Amino acid sequence: MQHVVIIGAGMGGLATALRLRHQGFRVTVLEKQPRPGGRSNVITEAGFRVDTGPTILVMKSAFEEMYRAIGEDIDQRLTFTQIDPNYRIYYHDDTHLDLYSNMAELAREVEKIETGSAERLFEFIGAAARKYALGMDFVDRNFNKLTDLANPVAGLRLLQTSAHQNLYRQVRRFFNGNDKLTKAFSFHSMFLGLSPFEALAMYSLITYADVALGMWYPEGGIYAIIEDLLQLANERGVEIRTNSPVDEILIEQGRVVGVRLGSGEQVQADLVISNADLPYTYTHLIKGQHRKHYPDRRLEQMDYACSGYLLYLGIDKRYDHLRHQALYFSEDYKATLDDIFVNKAIPEQPSFHMSIPTVTDPSLAPPAHTLIYLLAPMPNLDNSDVDWEAAAPRLRAQLLDQLECIIDPDIQEHIVWERDYTPLDFQQDYNAVHGTAFGSLSQGFFQSAYFRPHNKAHDINGLYFVGQGTYPGIGMPMVMISSRLVTERVIEEWC
Ligand SMILES: Cc1cc2nc3c(=O)[nH]c(=O)nc-3n(C[C@H](O)[C@H](O)[C@H](O)COP(=O)(O)OP(=O)(O)OC[C@H]3O[C@@H](n4cnc5c(N)ncnc54)[C@H](O)[C@@H]3O)c2cc1C
Predict the structure, then answer these.
(1) Are domains 3-40+60-66+220-302+439-494 and 306-430 of this chain identical in fold?
(2) Closest approach atom of ligand 1 to CA 466
């Protein structure tokens, strides 16, 4: 039986392990951390259970496909609730907008912001739907040569949707220059670590996936999915070894022969799949002489996604007026994003994402308590001189000031448990290059589809990649698709 070693037990590593085990491979997963999950992780403390990374699931069909591929039905194993509205958006001037998936409700909401905008909303959704349908052709496939990218008909049709234009400017035109609506329908590119001011209009396909296809919450939180994957792996004989950092991928005569762990132990393998950050894998795990296609210089010149500051709060009070998910947009949104992406500095007025999962699932906290998760996008560590030791307490204070305005003026008196997480933690815990949060390589045109590093190493036989660093890219559904693409490749080449 051929032996596959997977480096990293992130969502992509675990999904690939199960798919390949189902195809009859012997599979060993080696994870550096004590707990699997990677960026999709959890803290369980003081009666609170908080997802530390992703909090909601879009494109549920990608998860359904992964379970079907191994003979399971995700809906028989996990319980999902659709979150609607997807988000409450709080603006700096004390107004808010609920971003519903229900189109009639959404139309009513946008009309409250500007009379007559419902019609423009439907035009925008229609255009985003076309981008989604055409864009999936570039998401859902392996690439071998440049011509694989050039499906001329799909490419032409995509151009007709003006997908190559600037995202923020295009959304602004749809909404007649209305600032609040433009923010509400363009921020989604941030989930790929990309500023809407720099992203391609193509990425309004994420807005479509969120708003029109719906947003789902699994009972127990996102980590319930990781736990279920681990249970399946255990039942099916996938070996998962935690506290097992890989130090080197062993290569002989251009072919992978195994890995060497930090402990010095060598594990033989017929093929190795790295779920660790792709640029990290190349620079830290493969000696320079084996990777002429990816020298350090090329990896250094790539564009890296943004990071984030996270604050998790346990509160001894319930707030029945809150939504499960919310966003706060600071007044000078452009300055905030320029600080993150251009100046590589901490924004003066951070915008943030807030998740309050106890609204849907009170079991995540002690009775009559609330769990609050705050994520403020931040610059990554590349060319940034932010001193995180000093910055974290300041950011904490700023975020709590905002919570006093939008949730409860006395909220600070009710904090009974808290933790925070900075870009330095991403770097240290997950070997995230430059401490990026959502994924390592940003998703501009020249780092997407064919142009994103491929899931098969160019000059090393038997080495593959899965997860956010390769195509299709960042985010859990993309990582699920990535696990299918690499599995298809391995089966084609090894079975
Ligand atoms: C705060 C935050 C919020 C997010 N929100 C969402 C969301 O709401 N929806 C969504 O879809 N996505 C979201 N994402 C993105 C999503 O979590 C990631 O894109 C996805 O989980 C990445 O999975 P992955 O399998 O590619 O790898 P990772 O999660 O990066 O896992 C890689 C694993 O490799 C391990 N590893 C690294 N080096 C070694 C080594 N040398 N030896 C052994 N193991 C090693 C790491 O420890 C890690 O466990 C969010 C991410 C974050 C951080």
Answers:
(1) no
(2) 26
Q: What is the CATH number of domain 3-40+60-66+220-302+439-494?
A: 3.50.50.60
- Ligand 1 centroid vs 10 CA: distance in angstroms? 5
Which strands, in side-by-side order, build the sheet including 266-268? Answer: 246-252, 255-261, 266-268
Distance of CA 280 from the midpoint of ligand 1 (Å): 13
% of the chain exceeding 70 in pLDDT: 99
Distance in angstroms (rounded) separating the CA atoms of residues 441 and 236: 33
Per residue in 372-395, pLDDT (tens digit) is: 999 999 999 999 999 999 999 999
What would the pLDDT profile of 207-216 be if each residue is shown by its tens digit?
Answer: 999 999 999 9
* Centroid of ligand 1 to alpha carbon of 351 (angstroms): 22
Specify the ligand 1 atom closest to the Cα of 469: 26
Show Cβ contacts of residue 238 under 8 Å, excluding neighbours closer than 6 positions: 17, 18, 21, 27, 28, 29
Architecture of the domain delimited by 306-430: 2-Layer Sandwich (3.30)
Q: Tell which atom from ligand 1 comes closest to the C-alpha of 482.
A: 26
| C-alpha to C-alpha distance for 355 and 125, rounded to whole angstroms | 25
Structure tokens of 245? Answer: 């950092």
DSSP letter for 237, please: T
Closest C-alpha among 213, 217, 263, 270 to residue 241 = 263
The two structure tokens encoding residue 488: 């298809």
Backbone angles phi, psi at 382, to 5 degrees: -75, 120
**Is the shortest distance between the CB of 41 and ligand 1 below 6 Å?**
no
Label residue 149 by pLDDT band (50, 70, 90): low
Q: Using the mean position of ligand 1's atoms as its centre, give its distance from the Cα of residue 40 in Å.
A: 6
DSSP letter assigned to residue 304? B
Q: Are 155 and 166 in contact (CB under 8 A)?
A: no
Sequence spans of domains, the chain: 3-40+60-66+220-302+439-494, 107-208, 306-430
Element containing residue 152 per DSSP (H, E): helix 152-160
Q: In which band, very low, low, confident or very high, does the pLDDT at 159 lie, cut at 50, 70 and 90?
A: confident
Residue 278: pLDDT band by 50, 70, 90 thresholds? very high
State the Cα–Cα distance between residues 192 and 203, nearest whole angstrom: 9
